[in-house]
Amino acid sequence: MADLKDRIEGLRKAFEAEALKVGDAKSLEELRTAFLGRKKGHVTLLFEDLKTVPAEDKREAGRQVNAFKTFVQDGLLALEGKVRSDGRPARAMDLTLPGRKKYVGAPHPLVLFQQEIENIFLGMGFAIEEGPEIETDYYNFEALNFPPHHPARDSWDTLYIKDDLLLRTHTSPVQIRVMEKKKPPIRIIIPGRVFRRETPDPTHLPMFMQVEGLVVDEGATFAHLKGTLEYFIRALFGEKIKVRFRPSFFPFTEPSAEVDIECIVCDGKDPSCRVCGGTGWKEILGSGMVNPQVLKNVNIDPEKYSGWAFGLGIDRTAMFAYGITEMRHFYENDLRFLRQFGAK
Description:
Layout: H1 2-21, H2 25-36, H3 42-49, H4 58-80, H5 109-122, E1 127-128, E2 134-136, H6 137-140, E3 160-162, E4 165-167, H7 172-181, E5 186-195, E6 207-217, H8 222-237, E7 243-250, E8 253-262, E9 281-290, H9 292-297, E10 306-313, H10 314-322, H11 335-338
Parallel strand pairs: 1-5
Antiparallel strand pairs: 2-4, 3-4, 5-6, 6-10, 7-8, 8-9, 9-10
Helix pairs in contact: 1-2, 1-4, 2-4
């Protein structure tokens, strides 16, 4: 027992001497391994040697070894408080420094804007539908009344995976899929990602967000379309926003119209405005009455039912609403930019 007591006392002094030399994380770990290592640590070897202690002395010997182990553990814990995790000695706390803010996650600004759009239409009784991003030529073009040689079907505009498979260029294929499965009345919106062969610039990207809407019912008219879109736009941009409809053309709607709103950057008063080009108006979406041929393609009787549809780019509309000049900002993951929209 006297030999064990002397051995423990020697190890205690050795630990205290080595502890004074600890100045970084590496030396601290070396000291921990030397005394608490599983194979050759001094404390581990002491427990191994207890096997040879006479039975009448084991209780006291065990108490002394456990007391030394606790001494070592407490010493290492105290040293951890003096050594920084990066290996440098800890310095005294400067109470004059500002506190470190902890940031938590938040929805992406495009997600927030999409949710705002969805909530407006949910309040009007619309349902939300989704569909595949990889589509066939039939659903993306043919069923939507695109002619065989329409420019949109060209590989310069569309990203083809193979002959009949492509990345959808709009969310309109979901309209066809829903009309195939459901009977009127139909009242849906379809948000999602779409893909086009675009050269990236401030207002164009090969992948962007879009939301489309579709209503099919008996007696659905252009007046219903106009009233719904005017309500939606004013709910999104404010009651005082001016709205106008201009005749246009889309293969899947007839008649068709593009919808403009008064420029919210210059209020339609600055002839040098870069956003509206000095016109005072900004086009935000396309719309129209569903072409009767599209209804025939999904076995809906155009003599009994009529429908209308619309589509807008979430990214571009968000740019206009937030006064952002670069669509690419939404996808660069710059926290300085994202935290302006709700990330704390």
